[in-house]
Amino acid sequence: MASEPAFDPRPILRALQDHDVDFIVVGVMAAVAQGSPVYSRDLDVTPSGAPDNYDRLAEALRSLAARLRQPDGNGLDFPIEATFLAGNTTWTLLTRAGVLDLVFMPAGTRGFDDLRRNALELDLGTGTPVLVASLIDVIRMKEAAGRPKDEATLPALRQTLEVIREREAGGS
Amino acid sequence: MISADLLKEARLRAGLTQAELGRRVERSQSQVARWERGDVKPSLETLRELIRACGLELWFRMANYDDSYVPDIVDNLSVTPAERIERAVTFVNALRPWGAAREAAHGI
To answer: Has residue B34 been placed in a domain?
Structure first.
């Protein structure tokens, strides 16, 4: 049986920041950061697909002792190298701080540059702001992905957007 | 702002600029921008036409109104993003024993 480490996105974010990786937090944790009452035990990020970013990403993943996460939840060693990482658009990894999903091309988007336009800069607890996909972009990704688990989160995400909009309109 | 959000979502999913979408529906880029800002609200028929021009279909379904998330959202918005993450981490890790028990029951 798999023994997954306790989940904490902050050490993962810190490692990415320490290695100057260009990335955007997407998925449920991006929604959580903006107030949505949803939860996940993995961190989804969209790294930039720039060639030198793969090198920095590989260094960060090595520092996190990243392994491929298998369907049974166990980790499998793999070559953490830029060229290997560039060979796939999605990676599900097990790190010392829990599950990290690298999603270079989230459903309904064109990746990092597309999401960066509306991204927010938020401190998620590392002391340094990171780019976080806007709530409307998180909704766009969830809508496009269309899996039951994505659709299940949409009412909470849409309601969060509505509450934020109402507050903005009310000036509070 | 619902129509504005839906329109922008559809346009971005299609990878179109406002001008490109405008050309597809024979409207100006500035008109598309007004719709997306919510300055002008398109009719439902126009919204459906715009979304179809993005290669997508707008589906309609009625459901009971549910605002049960609002108290939690309001509570979350009263703290910083870092505190929201802290709350989420605490919550999911508190559930780990149940997850492990479920996996054991299913032989995972």
So the answer is: yes
Among chain A, residues having any CB pair with chain B shorter than 8 Å are 1-2, 4, 6-10, 29, 32-37, 39-41, 72-73, 108-110, 114, 122-125, 132, 136-137, 139-140, 143-144, 155-156, 159-161, 163-165, 167
Ranges in chain A, pLDDT < 50:
1
Domain of residue B74: give its range: 70-105
pLDDT of residue A171: 66
This prediction's pTM: 0.87
B82's tokens: 């870092």
Beta bridge partners of A47: A23
Lowest-confidence segment of A29-33, B26-30, B100-104 by average pLDDT: B100-104
Q: Give residue-wise pLDDT tens across range A46-71.
A: 999 999 999 999 999 999 999 999 88
Q: Residue A123 and residue B82: Cβ atoms within 8 Å?
A: yes
Name the H helices within A47-147. Answer: 51-63, 82-85, 112-116, 135-145
What Å distances lie between residue B70 and A29, A161, B64, B74, B84, CA to CA? 18, 11, 15, 6, 15
Give all domains of chain A, ordered by start, each with its CATH number. 9-170 (3.30.460)
